Amino acid sequence: xxxxxxxxxxxxxxxxxVGAAIAQNLGEEGATVCLSGRNSERLQEIAGQLxxxxxxxxxxxTIDKEMDDVVRxxxxxxPRLDGVIHGAAIIALAPVATGSTEDFENxxxxxxxxxxxxxxxxxxxxxxxxxxxxxxxxxxxxxARAEVSQYAATKHALKAVADSLREECNPAGVRVCxxxxxAIATSMQESVRAYQKRDYHPESLIQPxxxxxxxxxxxxxxxxxxxxxxxMRPTARS
Length: 238
Known about the structure:
Number of strands: 7
Order of helices and strands: EHEHEHEHEHEHHE
Distance between the termini: 41 Å
Strand content: 5-15%
Largest sheet: 7 strands, parallel
Low-confidence stretches: none
Helix content: 40-55%
Mean pLDDT: 94
Oligomer: single chain
Radius of gyration: 17 Å
Shape: globular
Strand order of the largest sheet: 3-2-1-4-5-6-7
Structural class: alpha/beta
């Protein structure tokens, strides 16, 4: 039997490279995968490629009404929820001296407020199943470098959310992990390298499938143990 054959897992940011890889990997391992993201057509495409059809819940999670609708529809069709993978994120790079406050607000809405509120809404279902929450964080959530202040601030905040949630929910059997990721071969990283005027060599970076494999390892841990923080980085440093 596939190890996630009786599990229902939500993946946000599922229309992106990492989210899609996670959804595909979980589907191969038997999970019922719920996919959320802004790109409805892309979600449908990914869902159709899963070993068993995925369930799509498109919406902009930075808009309360759309998030409420996503949660309502998902819980109506999936009374049990065993895990949430928070994968949606955006980035805007700029020096502190000239950075746009609008960019900062947009990143905070997507990278912090949306996963915070989504977790609130799904916590009763996760508590009932003694489920797991995995926050896809970033190495910027541990160390803030030049011109990454806004993004790094949101990722530091996301770590704080995860740490507090863990302390609050562990007694009820809910496990929480932050996965701190270095440079990944995605369109987001390509745009970062372009901004930094650095060459982009995707073959030397973490591959989306590598992240997907780690997520599966974390989800498959026995309920007697919990991994709280994991850091992944490319083998080749550039």
